[in-house]
Amino acid sequence: MYLIIEFANLTGVTVRTLRYYDEIDLLKPHQVNEAGHRIYTEKESKQLQQILFLRELDFSLKETKELLANETNQLAFFEEQRLALIAKKDHLTDIIHLIEDTIKEQKGQLNMTDSERFKAFKNKQLKENRDKYGQEIIDTYGQESLESSEKKYQQLSEKELFGEMPEIESELLDLLKADVVIPSDSAARIYALHAKWLSFSLDLTPQIHLSLVDMYLLDDRFKAYYDDKSGAGATQRLHDIVHFYSK
């Protein structure tokens, strides 16, 4: 058992912070003795470790309290955070290598290609996309289609990746905010923009286009993407437009 000052020295957390955690019911001491001293045990030590983990991951005190209260999902949550941290570490390693190569280039020791300059950023996006949607793509179109899509994305130029793609997406999302009539010039423009945006990383056909927007309605992740950015009903609107112009 530890008195609060001993627990503070052990954990590196100040006495003032431990008292505050007690006040907000985030970390209660094991007991308060007759003299009014807070007493902590191994149990509180484990709880504080989890609190510090979550604080390092930028969770607020309120979020931390809610997460720790849900004991049934804690293991799955920490496993998920572990994988996220590994992915972040891998990305930072790529960025460090890119910075090192950039330094060498500026010293005249290396010449990087345009593709090499943006490889780390593309790898991060590909990893995120594979984690979120990779299995659905494999199940629907096969492993070869996923690899072909990733290869095509890797070959995008700086202009395409940081200029054309964001511009097309921005215009598409703006147009989807309106209650578009089908057919109309606006609807035709939405169809063309969406097709062009997908074509940056897909060998798009009308059949693939149709199946993708069908999946948008069935998958809450896709639906949330369009509805959050362009308002409720945007995903349905896009679906209907693609179905009209793809047939």
Automatic annotation (TrEMBL):
What residues does the HTH merR-type domain cover? 1-70
Keyword annotations: Activator, DNA-binding, Transcription, Transcription regulation
Does Nucleotide-binding appear among the keywords?
no
Q: Which InterPro entries match?
A: DNA-bd_dom_put_sf, MerR-type_HTH_dom, MerR_fam, TipA-like_antibiotic-bd, TipAS_dom
- Domain of life of the native organism: Bacteria
- Short name of any one Pfam family annotated for the protein: MerR_1
Q: Which PROSITE patterns match?
A: HTH_MERR_2
- Tell me the Gene3D superfamilies matching this sequence: 1.10.1660.10, Antibiotic binding domain of TipA-like multidrug resistance regulators (1.10.490.50)
Query: What's the protein name?
Result: MerR family transcriptional regulator
> Which species is this UniProt entry from?
Candidatus Vagococcus giribetii
